[in-house]
Protein: Small ribosomal subunit protein uS13
Organism: Blattabacterium sp.
Amino acid sequence: MAVRISGIDIPRSKRGVIGLTYLYGIGKSLSKMILYSIGINENKKVENWSDDDISKIRKFISDNIKIEGELRSEIQFNIKKLMDIGCYIGTRHRKGLPLRGQKTKNNCRTRKGRKKTVANKKKVTK
């Protein structure tokens, strides 16, 4: 049976550090910190975790860390707040442009989307 933490199945064949990164909001360093503070070896596979270990992890995460839906909604609220107050980053969000000073002449297709071709002006014949 798969280990389930806050609605996400963690793969049983992975090491504990890597398995916890399947949760949105938990990276490798945070998962190391979680396992260290609980006292579980980070190289121990998820399938070898006892029920007690799993319940400790669930309790630690629910008490101390925002993950998944709660974190996503907080991030969306922060972005909406930036757009409402009209600061520079908020206007860049609204226009769909890169936020952190990148050049936009040649690159940034991820933020801008597909190319929009602009037709050339017709040449005047004499």
The longest strand covers residues 3-5. The first helix runs from residue 16 to 20. The CA atoms of residues 13 and 45 lie 6 Å apart. The mean pLDDT is 89.
